[in-house]
Structure formats: C-alpha cells, structure tokens
Fold:
Amino acid sequence: MEVNVQAVTDAVSLVATVTPQVLAAYSTLKSIWTQANPGKTEADFLAMLDAASQTNIDDATAILIRDGYSLSADGEWQPPAAS
Amino acid sequence: MRYRSTVRLARLLPLAFVVALGAAACAHPDPTVTPPTAVASAADVATKLQASANVILHAADAAGKTANPLANGTPLLSTRQVDLVAVDVYKLGKAGKRLKAGFDDYNAIKQAGGDLSAQRVAIQQAIADAVEALHDVSLAVPSGTVAAIDQGVADALAVIAAIKAGAL
Structure:
C-alpha cells in the first residue's frame, strides 16, 4: 500500500471537513440522552413527544420536497420521475 | 496502489463517524431523575428517539452537501441516501404521533375503568413501527450509522417489554 503526500493531504482534508460535524453530532446526541426533565408532568412529556414527532415530520418533508419527492394519497413518498 | 489506500481510508472514515456517534448514544440519563408515571417514562424515551433521529436527519443532509476529497469531490452521502433517511425519519415522526394518540386513548380508557388490551397493542405497534423506521436508517446509510441510535433502540425495546409485562 502506497501512502504518498497527496493521499495524506486528501485524508487530512476530509478529516478536517468531517470532524466538526462528528463532534457536533456527538455533543448533541449526548445532550439528548443525558437530558432530564425534573418537575415535568405526564402531560408535559406527552406534549414533548408530540412536538418532537411533528418536527421530524416537518423537517423530513422539507428535505423530500426540496429533492422533488411527492406524497401520494396513501401516505407514501414517491421519488421524482427520472428525467 | 494509491487508489487502494485512499479507498480503504474512505471506508474507515464513516466507521470513525459511527464510533463517535455510538459513544454519544450510549450515554445514559441521570437515573435519579425519573418521569412521574409509566406513560411519561415511555413518552420520554420516545421523545429522545425522535430527537436523536432529527440529529441524524440533519447530519445526513449535511453529509449530502459535504464534498469528499477522496472521491473527486462527490458528496459523502448521495442524494438518494439522504432521501431514504428522510423517508425513514418521516415514518418515525408519524409513529410518534400515533404513539402519543395511543397514550391519550390509554389514559382515557384507564380513567373510565375500561379494558386496556387494545390500547396496549396499539402502543406496542406504534413503538415497533418507530424501531423499524430507525432500523431502516441503517439500511440507507453505509457502515451502520444506526450504531448512533443503538441505545435508543434498546430503550425502546425495554419500553415494549415493560408494556408487555403490564407496566402500563
């Protein structure tokens, strides 16, 4: 296996690009799973579930519409027709 | 030869991504602070699943816009892969809404002293759908990015076990 200067440069470039995203995702996920909600009622927890679920629906919908998908009557996402 | 080494490296980098995210997902909440009821506990875990999936969705979207210098600048994830993750996260969101509705029905019937069997089944199904959607994310993204949500899936399975054991 040959490792030359260009290969190392490419690898460093990729690591430098990706590492901040990985660290940000790490921090966010850790925050989510260590998050406690003292003092909240059952209704509060149910409201949080409802809101988080709606956020996923909205965010995923925005990405799929941006990429040309359409939602069929039966609730399935259809990819854009091949051009 | 150089091509082989760069290809190998390109395959290893997603693994590093998985390891980092997996470590994050293995963090546990403070056991001294618990939700007030069994339903609240289940809703809490389900909310964390939703939030984790949202992080993954946006990480995938960002990866779809990040050029891979080891592959002539093509994105780390293809548009197709990002879209598959989005479809799965959409399904997860829908399952979360059904789960919330199931909890509402469960509470209403419990308060009225009715039979809770059907509601337990509906809740189990909604959670199973959510877990399946999370699993599908791993099929859309290479190198098992689902490791990032292993803990979430494990917690969801624990919730299902608790429901089957009659904890709700």
The longest strand of chain B covers residues 67-68. The longest helix of chain B spans residues 79-112.
